[in-house]
Amino acid sequence: MLKSGRSFALLTGCLLAQAAIAAPPAGKVHDPSSIVRNTKLSWFFSTGPGIKSFSSSDLTNWSPGPPVFKTFPAWHNEQVPGNNGYLWAPDLIWRDGRYWLYYSVSTFGKNHSAIGLATSPTLDPQDRLYGWKDEGLVIQSKRGNDYNAIDPAIFQGADKRLWMVFGSFWSGIQLVPLDPVTGLLKKDAKPQRIAWSEQIEAPALIQHGKFHYLFVNHGLCCRGVDSTYEIRVGRSKTVTGPYLDKDGREMTTGGGTLFLGTEKPFIGPGHFATIEGYPGTRFSFHYYDGNANGFSKLGIRELEWTEDGWPRAGKWVMPEAK
Prior knowledge:
This protein is mainly β. The chain has helices at residues 5-19, 74-79; strands spanning 36-38, 41-46, 48-49, 52-56, 63-65, 86-95, 98-105, 113-120, 133-141, 153-156, 162-166, 173-178, 192-195, 200-208, 211-218, 230-236, 257-260, 266-274, 282-289, 295-305, 311-318.
């Protein structure tokens, strides 16, 4: 939980930096969702006006698609006054014949935020069935809450139960169960903290073997070549934790083993996400390109596993390894 003036200053600085990129150039990728396949194309969504979309036939060459929202649900402004249609950090799953897209509605420097859900039977804008339906608000946070309802990531267990991790700064990363039919918050569900650090956000959950793995970002994003983002990880035998790092430290007390940090010119990697068709073998993320004035781009790397069951960032897939 942020208690010191220094902590709040760090948070405010990061969010003001985000505000400075509120109108990014075309093609800029920040907070990419999981990558999923629809017919012959793979798609992901990212932070931007109305939520940006991109598609590719080879996971290397990506083309921009239409935004999810051209007109916005009325509840956005009702629940989060001041949001201007710039929506953050989406995540995407396929379930029960629909694509479920979760996303953040927020304003900079405040935890007056909400996570929403939209669904569509297809991702192909040329398909007659294409169209995003607003399913409403999933969870929200307001001044007085000790968490921030942004950065959703969805986990579907082998038992078909549905979970969402989310959070940024404040008291850290939260876990909640979702209703498997509606995709909304399960009745009487309460957020459970599963990770904390003074600077933390962008969680993701995956399962590999007998463990659940929680990826989070420590550090500050959105500062181009000055970003200090890095991806850290812990694991647990149960989805609810506790999540421990390699040294046995709990992630709720600041633990987390470094998974991927800056490797110049690839600066401040963040927002670990999965890639459909490559379970446990590839992952995506964004980074700031030190050779392009800190422009944020999509990266894809192979996901390797050590003999003792820890994930390791492998060879670059995009941009192609040299």
